[in-house]
Amino acid sequence: MMALTPAFTPGPLVSGNVVSVALMAPAGRLSLRLGQADIPVLSAAIGIELPTRIGTRAKNGPVDVICLGPDEWQIQTDATDTQRLTDACAAVYAQAPHSLTDVSAREITVQIEGPGATDLLTIGCPRDIDKIAIGEGCRTIVDGVSAVLWRDGANSFRLDIWRSFAPYVIGLLQTGGAELAAE
Amino acid sequence: MSNFRVAGRGRIDPQTPVKFTFDGKSISGYKGDTVASALLANGIHLMGRSFKYHRPRGAICAGSEEPNALVGTRRGTGQFEPNTRATVQEIWDGLEVTSQNRYPNLSFDIGAVNDRAYMLFSAGFYYKTFMWPKSFWDKVYEPFIRAAAGLGVSPTENDPDKYASRYLHTDVLVVGAGPAGLASALTAARAGLRVTLVDENAETGGTLTSEPQAVIDGQPALAWAEAATAELKTLGARVMTRTTAIGYYHQNMVGLCQKLTDHLPKPDANTPRERLWRVRATQVVLAQGALEKPLVFDGNDRPGVMLAGSAQTYLHKYGVRVGDSAVILTSHDSAWYAAFDLADAGTKIVAIVDTRSAPAAELLAQAQKRSIRVLSGYTATGTEGRLRIKSVRVNPVVNGKVGTAETLPCDCLLMSGGWTPSLHLFSHTKGALAWNDDMQTFLPDRKTEDCEIAGAGRGLWGIAAALNDGAQMGATVARHLEKEASANEFGVEGDRPGTGVSHKELPTDLNPGKARAFVDYQNDVTAKDLRLAVREGMHSIEHVKRYTTNGMATDQGKMSNINGLNIAADALGKPQPKVGLTTFRPPYTPTSFGAFVGYHRGDHFEVTRKTPIDSWAEENGAIFEPVSLWRRAWYFPKNGEDMDAAVSRECKTTRSAVGMFDASTLGKIEVVGPDAVEFMNRMYTNPWTKLAPGRTRYGLLLGDDGYIRDDGVIGRLSDDRFHVTTTTGGAARVMNMMEDYLQTEWPDLKVWLTSTTEQWATIALNGPNARKLLEPFVEGQDLSDEAFPHMSIVECTVAGFPARLFRVSFTGELGFEVNVPACHGRQLWEILWEAGQKHGICAYGTETMHVLRAEKGYIIVGQDTDGTVTPHDAGISWAIGKNKPDFVGKRGLERPDLVAEGRKQLVGLLTQDGITKLEEGAQLVLDPNQPIPMKMVGHVTSSYHSDAVGRPIAFALLEGGHSRMGETIYIPMPDGVINAEVTGTVFYDPKGARLKL
Amino acid sequence: MLLVHCPYCEQTLPELEFTYAGEAHVARPDAATPVSDEEWRNFLFIRNNVKGPHYERWRHFHGCGRYFNAVRDTVSDRFLITYKVGETRPELSDLLEKSK
Predict the structure, then answer these.
(1) Does the bond joining B586 to the residue before it have cis omega, within 30 degrees of 0?
(2) Using CA atoms in the order B56, B151, B98, B94, what is the torsion angle rounded to 10 degrees?
(3) CB contact under 8 A, B760 and A163
(4) Which pLDDT tens digit goes with each residue over B548-602?
(5) Is B164 close to A179, i.e. CB distance below 8 A?
(6) What count of other Cβ atoms lies within 10 Å of the Cβ of residue B784?
(7) Hey, which of B25, B339, B680, B744 has its CA 20 to 30 A from B1?
């Protein structure tokens, strides 16, 4: 098990056959808010049909969008890609007012993978993980901390955690990883 | 090996001997034994002392309901648990077990003197004995009660074990893995459902482990149970043993406590000792079986007196005969089978004493076949034997008259007063119980949750009945979940269904006032106590319970409730259902604090939020303080400075050169949209329409009651975009409040809120050298006072990082706040720190921040305000936009109480000696000579020593404070009264000249 | 711990994701026009303290972030319904009829 550095250096945090946890490289993240009527305009601007059922996602190249609320989307993309999206959205602001806010540095992402991934999440998350479809996600709570959970595969998840809460949540994942390995 | 072990019987592993100690003495058993079964195999019945009378006691049962055999178990330093039930604790090599509630030892206990004085300790003795004189409370009664209270001794060291928790979602949760539970789980799992089956025992099978004679569908009972368990696992069901369902909560949430290591000699260091499961089940099947009741008669508590069903369990599950010569005392058929099984295993059955006059012919025939003497229509009226029963006194009862006594010698007395369905969990749901007159017990009635009760839990007796009912209930819940399911009919041979009757205390020919006929063993409550309680006016069963403590022991009334009810009902002259049961509450069995605490201890006790610059502060010797969930650098002591010295230096450096402060914890909200300015106008008291992009303003947030909720500096980045800051502790609350108004009051506004608290690291530079330090790093903005005046904001780069730069001050000095993406926060901090050396820079913490702002009269919401302070009270009504039609709090400010005279208002205080620093929270009075209790007119909210002012300064909320300028008020303290002068709140640079450098 | 149905997410989810937000259908009087002291007091402080079905607000705080309305029986802790902000307040008699 590796230590989480205060600088959030990307790399493995829990290794093993049962479950692995890794801090992912910094990503570009944008919070997009807009009204129903303007969804087509913004979809065109960012080049992705914005999903409208809460929890569903859409992907195009590096850009992965999740619908978190009736007027809220989180966009994740390469760290270098945010300016392109910001400009594209700004260009349609007058036509379709919205809020696009860069939150790239607000949170970090850990990837949780392995046959024990679901079990590891159940130590802190009260949701029924089985009910989150592959390719979907949700904002939920992990040990009292708000987090966005992305399910990429049967045994593959990403968890976005606000920076200041991350050491606490990752500490729990490391404890749980050791616990699962001992089972 | 002892004579009490029966070769070839039981589920223990005879190939794996285990040694443990009991009160220091080495005891041998086998893997699979409990402490109790191993002691009994060695002929030891004496395992504990009772709570009140210190009477010698042995294990009365073989399960978690045990009230007597409570022991301390120890693995190593800190790994000690008191009050563990010896009947549950599995043994392992090296386990240390100690008895409790005795001094100097279990066989000779000084506290047993209480037993001789039992007449003094009758029902309600606490209430009667410790009444007067009043002066005895502190010195005599309380120490006595404290010394006598409790059973085992709490450990004093930290518990080094790990505890864990998990959530679990399942279609069907089955509680209890006896025949009913196994059949339920199988039926549901075969229907394709996610099934979880839990049992508190080490293995599945439940009652089948005590009745191996049965044959289920052609298979021996235990083989059937093993096969059923294996099939469940194949079907993907989760089968959890050593797992107790401790509580049943709303909407089918069931708490489980799983014991993972208490049975292991060398557990893995990463394996938690216990794990708490929070299970959400769509359907629940309660298959918890029934608990056997004792019979109530004089001397029914001596070591060697135990429940007949438990003796049967010890024989079949552990291969242990509980004695060489047994008397069976029963009002139920089931105990007869215990007699037969023990007789067949070599124990002499002295007699079967049945309270019923005509036991079933089939039972009589089987007794006769074994030449067992049967006494029917009998009562028991006493026992003999100090540390172990030696004999029992029995009498015939003819036409209600107790006849001549006969004494039966024995070394164990196996009793059965019938069986009580285990409905504790069902009762947690507030499910209704209905009295069944035939069975003389409560059965489940109206349900409040999606659950079914199967088997003995609803009064069905026998293995076939349990299996078939279990399967039915499994099919029922499957159908509720819209699955096809068919319930098997099981063929069972060797089943032992039976019936019985229920009793109050047994009739006696001796003085019932002297009978020690125990109902609640652990708390030493006798039948006589219950009757006394009723005589003394306790007519509600809840009062009887509390007056006598019946049912309040750690077994939670599992043994005593129905017997207690029968006796209380008789004393009250009412039928049982009119008297009712006391409430069962979680947990079902005692549960460790560790299980509830789980991961939340030590470093993980609660969330500790850290800023991007926290690591630098730590490396540079900062002392931290908690501020809401954050830890913030409090001060940075140098060369052994104490707090006062460090803060004094930090203040001086900041006012004379430059100080650097990590303000990253400030809440930040991005308010964006065409209606952003309208939203700001409605939320905050201030007018925002005329605030130009590039400018900032102090924003004041009220509640609609007119009281101050939060404040912060707010910058307008463009027409449609505001950067709002909030207090550290208020960030989430303010965001919540804004969303509330936006979503529910003004859903028509086109504006959106995004929390950016953690997007930005915020570094505040304050002091006359701040500009000189910062200027070389800033690109895209001239920092001169003309180009970038006080209360400006700009997007630029600082040291190459994209930044939002504020010209703002919370110290009264020339100040800037640099916001950069959090990932660059520490890097920028270090660059500025390095560059600041030649400008005489210091890092300062929250304490210096507090002093500097107080010198300037800047309030801190939540410290100088308390939720009842208006802008006028705080002296900041200038922040209210007078011409706005509405804002949150506008109408509230006009409420009669808020415009009344004599409100508490924020003032400055200067102690008249110029030396004394007031205590925050100290109360103010107008006349120090008035009699106590004095009329308090306010309190100190902030107080610091100020070098800049040259004396201590303070803020206070004071009644009518604004009109008391120059008056003297008084602060009575334990060592004398302090005089202080009421002043304004600005103590330093009142003209604000230093801001404009 | 309750299960709460979020009318926006259209899922029934653990209570831990939600926060309680007081009585529902307490409208804020338009303060731009004169509002009597009594009316404002009632808006601020006067609440029903229902034993039984209670109209109340919740927020899916650790989820979609939406405030919504609910009718919950304060005796049994059962939700009779949850519904979106702005939707018509459902009649209690209809809800009780349905819950049978």
Answers:
(1) no
(2) 140
(3) no
(4) 999 888 888 898 999 999 999 999 999 999 998 888 889 999 999 999 999 999 9
(5) yes
(6) 10
(7) B339
Whole-angstrom Cα distance, residue A41 to residue A64? 18
- Whichever domain contains C80, its CATH number is 3.30.2270.10
- Residue A147, amino acid: A
User: Coil, strand, or helix at residue B798?
Assistant: strand
Asked whether residue C18 is domain-assigned, the answer is yes
Paired tokens of B827 = 């890097």
A-B contacts at Cβ under 8 angstroms: 115
Range of the domain at C52: 3-22+46-99
Q: Domains in chain C: how many in total?
A: 1
Cα A20 from Cα A11, distance rounded (Å): 11
Q: pTM of the entire structure?
A: 0.94
**Stretch(es) of chain A classified as CATH 3.30.70.1520:** 28-102
Instruction: Report if residue C7 sits inside a domain.
Output: yes
The answer to whether residue C10 neighbours chain A at the CB level (below 8 Å) is: yes
- Helices and strands in chain B: count of H runs, count of E runs: 24, 52
Pick from C37, C65, C86: which is nearest to B895 by CB? C37
Determine the residue of chain C that is closest to A72 in CA distance: C64
CATH topology of domain A11-26+105-182: Gyrase A; domain 2 (3.30.1360)
Asked whether residue C34 is assigned to any structural domain, the reply reads: no
Q: What is the pLDDT of residue B371?
A: 97
Angle at B607 between CA B603 and CA B613, to 5 degrees: 90
In order, the DSSP letters of B235-283 are: TT-EEE-SEEEEEEEGGGEEEEEEE-STT-SS--TTS-SEEEEEEEEEE
Report CA-CA distances (Å) from B737 to B102, B683, B775, B846, B884. 59, 9, 38, 26, 20
CATH 3.30.1360.120: which residues of chain A? 11-26+105-182
pLDDT tens figures, A41-82: 999 999 999 999 999 999 999 999 999 999 999 999 999 999
3-class SS at C84? strand
Are the CB atoms for B684 and B867 separated by under 8 Å? no
B736 to chain C: closest CA residue: C61
Architecture of domain A28-102: 2-Layer Sandwich (3.30)
